[in-house]
Amino acid sequence: MKKLLTLVFVLGVILTAAVLTSSKPENYHSIEGTWELVSFHNYDDGINISSTTPKATGYRQVKMYYNGKVMWSRYVPNEPNGRFGYGSYYITEDELHETIIFGDSEMMKALDTLTEFIFELDLQNDTYSQISLDEEGNRTFSENYKRID
Predict the structure, then answer these.
(1) What DSSP assignment string belongs to 98-136?
(2) Distance between CA 79 and CA 82 in Å, rounded?
């Protein structure tokens, strides 16, 4: 009986040590939540930011990501109609993929030619940038958001 208890104790210690020393995957940031646009960046050479433009006074754009679905809405002062879109999304370590399937009349016209939007993604805990790339993979501009939920 004493040998059995000793064996169980040793196995418990080994298992505990294995669990404590095993490598754990790096935490993967989540884009889920509600985000508000704060600024735009332009890139001069595909790498460096050449200018930052804050959003205009009264302009508001909000994006919501939940359970693989995305919805965005935009209000621009002095424009008669707001803008919006809805679809699905997924992210990888460094990319944001949005497939928009429904939106306002202008968005529906645009969806005739393009429904999937792929951006370079710079995701932090409370901010993210969706960076547009040209055909050669150079950065052109970005929309920069802050978490508001």
Answers:
(1) EEEEEESHHHHHHTTT--EEEEEEEE-SSEEEEEEE-TT
(2) 7
Which is nearest to 124 in space by CA: 109, 141, 145?
145
Read off the pLDDT of residues 47-65 as tens digits, 9 standing for 90 and up.
Answer: 889 999 999 999 999 999 9
Question: What is the Rg, in whole angstroms, of the alpha carbon atoms belonging to the chain?
Answer: 23
Residue count (the chain): 149
Tell me the residue range of the domain where 37 lies.
31-147
> Domain for residue 99, yes or no?
yes
Token pair for 72: 């965005």
pLDDT band (50, 70, 90) for residue 46: confident
Q: Look up the CATH number of the domain holding residue 75.
A: 2.40.128.280
Can you give the pTM of this predicted structure? 0.77
